[in-house]
Amino acid sequence: MATAPARSSSAAASTYLLVPMVLFFALLIVAVLRSESLVTATGLGSAVIVATPLILATYALMATVIAGRGTVDLSIGPLIGFINVTLVQLFGQDIISSPIAFFLYALGVGVLYQLLMGLIIVFIRVQPIIVSLSGYLALSGINLVILVRPGGTTPEWMGDWGLGISIFSPVTAILIIATVAWLLFTRTAFYGHLRLMGSDERAAFTSGVRINLVRLGAHVISGLFAGLAALTYTSLISSGDPTQGTTYTLIAVTALVLGGASLAGGRGGAIGSLLGAVNIYLITYVLATFNFGAVQSFVTDLAYGTILVLSLLLTVVLPHIRGAVQSISPLLFFVILSIIGLGVIIHATYDYSAPAAATGTAAAAATPTAGSSFIFEQTGEAATPAGGSTLAGPLAVAGLLILSVLIILRSMVAQAGKTRSLSPLVYVVVAAFILFGVYVVANPESVTGLGGTTQSAP
Amino acid sequence: MNPSVLTALKWTGLAVAFIIAGIGLIFGFYQGLPAQQVILYTAATFALVAWTWRAFTLRWSEGGKPAAAERRDAEGNLVPTAGRAAWRSFIRAYRAVIAGLIILLLVFGICSITITGFFSVLNIISLLVLIGLLIFSAFMSKFVVENRSAFIGLTVLVGLFVVGSLKVEGFIYPENIKSMLLFASFLGLACVGQTMVALLGGLDLSIPFIIGAANVGLLYLIGLGVPGWVAVIMIIVVGVLIGLLNGFLSFRLQGQALILTLGVGFATSGITQILTSLGSRFAGNVFGAVPEWLSNLAAMNGTTFGLDVPPVILVWLIVAALLIVGMKNTVYGRYLYALGGNRTSASRLSISERRYWVAAYAISGGVSALTGCLLLGWSGGGFIGVGQPYLFMTLAAVVIGGTSLLGGAGGYGFTVIGVLVLQVLTSFLVGIGLNFQWQQFIFGLLILPMVALYARSPHIRTQV
Asked: Using CB atoms, which residue from B268, B438, B448 is nearest to A134?
């Protein structure tokens, strides 16, 4: 019952993914042309570390935004800050220190806060934005009381997380688990109810959806993501910072909108939010490669503002050109764009003295067919040049990958009408690639230094 | 109601007033306050209690049905034979008051335990005043059906004033009131646009950025040698233009006005800073001399026609009066309400939604720019972040005042009350030595119950 509306609307919503996708690849190409260090293992590692809290915060916003009634959780930034400073303070007083306690505490506080907010919205029936405004003021005030100025320390086991040397840090694992969890969640009936409620609450109520429960559920999910975001944020800065609230809220809302979600409710998704948050990171990254001197932060402001307004305007235009856009499958679009993007990346970073790696790179990177593999796309790319000295292995890998990509594309075209029934297969293949990518990265490291070839390129 | 009961009630009231005034008298002398002050307060307390008592008894004796039902509740409470059902109905009828009482007492208890020296006579009196106001407003709000938010706001204002003058030395001195009004007028002017836009069901988050940009831009223009008043007019025109841009862009994206205005705001402050700091070593700050008349306009020691009051307060009063009267009586104002209330019926009356939406945003931009200019006169130096506190403060003032963010209900008069409540509360919190973060925390906790008292949305059942 619930999957039927979800499917039809997801096809309509996926056209909104085109804008963030185009933006993502445009930014990626510019970023790589400006500075090649982004596509090395270190560059990607730090990119993941920096972007993950923002991505998770955007997920947290997304869960409640879909629920409708204009629920833009302004308090998400201060909530992350609150969990951050309390974690640091509790650790400083030796009350909690083990990873399990950290996780339980962060998730627990996130869920409790969001549940409280949800209860107020559902039972006292105050407008959500007022509740979140109230939470914003209260939390950002109390954060500064708990921790007067940025400082404090995090436990040792967390210290390694924030280094960002390798792509396969626990932060990446958290990001992947969160994304996969959301994708799995979109297949439940509850998600269908949530979207129905977000787009038309009265219709949901009259068709027997228990809207109070659904709304509370959305808040609980949002709380879980907020807890994870706070954990990764803590690991990123390795200390407590009570002042980040405003910025984080505004950036997360921006990322959400850049990802094609509607603040009016009912529309939004993990892939879009992921792309939106990564876009924000890339904007900052690209702008950082230019040297604007003292006005650097103002240029960033200007760019945020302009890109935000432009992408919003594009979402206005989209329905008018839907006839033309409808035939484009976002998945194929993504694959094509990623091939183009990788062509540019290879061109920019390619060491022409070792030609064998090229095919391997393109193939390994053209695999992402679901959001969960997104990070690993770059992995394969970064890893295969490392094996450039031994030709046989990468070539075989490349052949295999190209073959499987062709199979996927073929079956996609064949079953274009029934994408849902195909998706398990896609997930299986993607999972296989992920495992394979891990294997490739883990083993050839003994051959040459990881990313050495890439960095020596002109 | 028979006369004997009425007489008994009257005498009981007088006795209660006498006792309360007596307690106040004793405490007053115990505190060692000046005798005139104690006598004045005692008389005022006596009169107040007696008047309240009389008002209530008269209402109950003459009142119609609701009053009768209420009385029965009270009796059921008193007479034990009525038993549980009466208790339950009593609790149900006054659950908000009871919850408020419990929360007040809890907060008081926690504070007394954790903060040394909190448990003092003055604090107990403050608590009694607060409880009295809570009960008073809860009972009175049954009779105030229209404009309940204004009533509650005024009650809170009175409570804050009483507690403030008890707790804070010099709270009701002219100097302090002047400074409160000065800051309130800045906040009030910044809220003009937010109120207009909220009446249409939108939000404008570009206000703080426009304020900051105007602040920096004005000083920059003056530094370039443009005459002061020309520069102010130019800035206001640019503000209106940004507002127009906001309006046009957000018209098709009304659900997302929040984020769109934010984007425009980011861009505005970015451009302004890039333009003003080209060739300057100090990005973000512009240095220069503020004209004499501008600082007189907004500074604390400014004078209006020889009076020792900053003219900006007068400006605010005039703007407020114009808006309150204008919104009630002009076509523009009525159509604005019509649009906010129901788009469909407004369009049946051939009211152009686009024109009013864009105009509201344009006004918002212009007034924000004006506020930025005035803030330059107050601070004497350009700073882009000067508007930052107004980002959510304008929203808070509008919401506390009682203008619905869904549009169609409220008005600038309500916002004025909201602004005053926020300002007096700030002054009070500063007076008792709390710093900015505690103020923010308390604001956050205050908004929710105040809004919950008068701006609850109807249950979904009633909307189907």
From this structure: B448
Both B294 and B180 in one domain: the answer is yes
H/E element, B285: strand B285-286
How many other CB atoms sit within 10 Å of the CB of residue B113? 10
- Is B96's Cβ below 8 Å from some Cβ in A? no
> How close, in Å, is residue A439 to chain B by CA atoms?
43
Residue with token string 């228990």 = A210
ipTM of the complex in this document: 0.75
Domain ranges of chain A: 3-325, 330-456
pTM above 0.80, yes or no: no
Domain interval for residue B97: 3-161
- Rounded (to 5) percent helix, strand, coil in chain A: 80, 0, 20
Contact B460 A211 (CB under 8 A): yes
**Residue A74: CB partners within 8 Å, gap ≥ 6?**
A129, A132, A133, A135, A136, A249, A253, B392
Domain spanning A3-325, CATH architecture: Orthogonal Bundle (1.10)
For residue A294, give the nearest of B260, B277, B406 by CB distance: B277
Q: What is the pLDDT of residues B257-308, one digit of tens each?
A: 888 888 899 899 888 888 887 766 555 566 677 777 777 777 777 677 767 7
Which residues of chain A does B451 touch, with a Cβ-Cβ cutoff of 8 Å?
A: 126-127, 130, 134
Tell me the CA distances in angstroms from A307 to A254, A302, B79, one per residue in order.
10, 8, 70
HEC-encoded secondary structure of B34-71:
CHHHHHHHHHHHHHHHHHHHHHHHHHHHHCCHHHHHHH
DSSP E strands, A107-251: none
Residues B284 and B352 in one domain: yes
| CB of B270 less than 8 A from some CB of A | yes
Written as one letter, the residue type at B351 is: I
Find the residue in B nearest to A208 (Cα). B461
- Flag whether pLDDT at A3 surpasses 70: no
Contact A308 B436 (CB under 8 A): no
For residue B382, the cross-strand partners are: B286
Looking at the complex, does the CB of residue B443 fall below 8 Å from at least one CB of chain A? yes
In contact, A256 and A265? CB cutoff 8 Å: no
